[in-house]
Structure formats: structure tokens, C-alpha cells
Design goal:
With 72 residues, the protein is mostly helical. The protein has two helices and no strands.
Length: 72
């Protein structure tokens, strides 16, 4: 009678499914609204501190921060 060979054991790969890793990507409307809100916050901070800058720079900084938040 033939002898069955033992199948090699496979190690299961760990899947990380933490809530922090799963970020829901916003649709365009929500993304732009969040960027707009953040840009306004940056504008207010800049005006209160008297730091020189402009609204376009505030927008780009806000966009960068929101993209980082959603891993875009």
C-alpha cells in the first residue's frame, strides 16, 4: 500500500485589518469641503499671528494635509 506524503505546512500570512489602517476615501464634494474648511482655519491662524502668506498657499497647505489624512 502506498504511503501518503505529508503536505508541507504553510504559514498563514498575517493580515492587519486595524481600524486605523482602513480609511474611507471621501467623494470629491466632501474632500473639497474639508479642504475649504481647513484652508479657512489656516487663514485665521495666519491672520491672528500676523504671518505673511496668501490664500493660495493656505489652500495648498490644507489640500496637502487632507490628502495625507486620507492617504491619497
Amino acid at each position: 500500500m502506498p504511503v501518503k506524503k505529508a503536505a508541507p505546512k504553510k504559514t498563514a500570512a498575517r493580515k492587519t485589518t486595524s481600524a486605523a489602517k482602513k480609511t474611507v476615501k471621501p467623494d470629491l464634494k466632501d474632500f473639497l469641503a474639508e479642504v475649504e474648511k481647513k484652508a479657512y482655519e489656516l487663514y485665521e491662524e495666519r491672520m491672528n499671528s500676523g504671518a505673511p502668506c496668501d490664500d493660495i498657499a493656505d489652500w495648498f497647505q490644507a489640500e496637502k494635509e487632507i490628502k495625507t489624512k486620507y492617504d491619497l
